[in-house]
Amino acid sequence: MERSSAAAPPWFAPRDPARPRGSLGWRLNRLARHLARRDRVAMEREVRAAQEAFPALAELEEGAFRAHVAQVRRAYRLKRAQRTPGQPELTSALATVAAATKRTLGMTPSFPQFLAALAMADGYAVQLAPGEGKTLAVAMAAVLQAWDGRPCHVVTANEYLAARDVELMRPLYDLCGCSAASVKQEMQREESAAAYGCDIAYATAPQLLADFLRDQLLLGGAQTPVQRRLWRLNGGGAAMQPVMRGVYAAIIDEADGVLIDEATTPLIIASPQSNPLMVKATHEARALVDAMERDVHYTVHQGSHHDVRLTPEGEQWLAGVAHRLPEFWQQEDRRENLLSMALLARDVFERDRHYVVQEGRVVIVDENTGRLMPDRSWSHGIHQAIEARESLELTDPSQTAARMTFQDFFRRYHVLSGASGTLQGIGHELWSTYGLLTLRLAPRVPSRLRTGERHVYPSRDDKLDAIVAEASRIHREGLPVLVGTRRILDSEAIAERLLAAGVDCKVLNAKKHAEEAEIVAHAGGPDCVTVATNMAGRGTDILLAAGVADAGGLQVLSFEAHESARVDWQLFGRSGRQGAPGRAQAFIGLGDELFERHLPAVVLPFLWLAAGVPASRTRLAPALVWAAQWRAQRRSWSARKTLAEREAQVMQQLSFSRIG
To answer: Could you tell me which residue ranges the SecA family profile domain spans (predicted)?
Structure first.
């Protein structure tokens, strides 16, 4: 920690991601205690002690309770190094935060919420069933982290949830003596700095990483306290100050989405650079690819759908027309790269799936969340190629100033924790990559969500007709329906057919993001039909209207399986929350992209069997989906593992270059 001046807040240097968390002995001991469940038993004992102390604290007068909070907060911070389960400071702190929750929010934390908050404060990833009150558990853990006097970042799935959660929990934070704010993309630097100056800052992962990279550019890469002092001695900070106080503790809501699904996604800080030659070449390439035929002049790699390769015939054809390109782009490697970008824009990137066009601009759609990313652009000329394909004015290509993946960024936090309803199957990766242990908590009440129903159809049109018919039937019964899709175009196609069938429905996708709060607020009403992309997945809480639970609860219809079963469960988890009844059905097409891209070759005969023998489809569908998702996740895990190894190698090379 560094204090540069009396006016400047303390700054906390990021940890070196290439170095393991703690000594080898400490890690082995922590893992052994976890596997033997000794840590869990100790935490459960701590929670029971806190619950016993809770009633007496709840009866204190307001003034006495505030004085007690201040005293507990001081003791908690002073005993930071010696804090372990069973210490009175920890028991008192946990009970005090729970009592503050009851006073300010009118909610008494349940045993799973107590345990989740304590585990997250101790650096665990916690799996809580949907509807178990993850928002409150995260807030309780954030208070305990903030009482340490170090910056605590709460990472949410989107800005809407960041703003909502910080306002919901503000009474709790105020009583506990913690300042809190959310960081938004449209904020000015002064506003962002004020938000990061709070004890607890809510933000999305892209916002945190973007601000971190901008600060690093401002600091000239200075990360250690000594480097920052040298930066100041050389005149740094005279005109502009970093907005962050450094990185220390992060609590990630929907931890698997950030640490696994988006791990390899790089965030790039870039500045536009005028390049008239590239603009001319991009327009010419757009005209040239219209004469090219797929599987004749080029092939699209089915494994990733982001790899175009010219065939020998295509290379020969391109050599014959290369004179139409500007001279700089006539060189073999350059012209092939240019044409590849144009082909990707035509054959791979789909409008209303990967991007939308708004006000004459190409706006990227985040496939994981279904939300717009207005200030992002694709690199390597892809963005300009898509603009040319859409006949829009081309933006200037960008020059990269800083780049980092979310995996690399979150490994820089000293204390990392989080929560999610879908951590199954990724415990080993969380431990090996981030040093995060996983704690799975049983729900307070048994789930009444009915799942497992799969309906299989030979074509997309058949599947569309079937899902519209099922949504119409449920609508007539007076139950709310949530139809989940992966693409904007699918959500609009289903909505169009529902309207044609006389069923009124609401559509929630990236084009309707301004109406999100209103649509979600009514989605649990009787006979309400909502068609949504992944915007209605992670973090969305659909409250049931009076009488709906008794009638059967929210009915979820999934139009297409995702590459990860965890994402499917995020959609299903919108129903059956907190023991309420519900039902989730999956609609599968034999031509779905999941099968085209990821089904292992050895399993393809079973897909052909399902296509030819309708009676076998229901039995084969679960195995086909499992095989495709297994292969997709295996590929993703391999990419993340390779990335981690490459980043460690780069860090090691940089350390040698500094020594030299």
So the answer is: 25-616
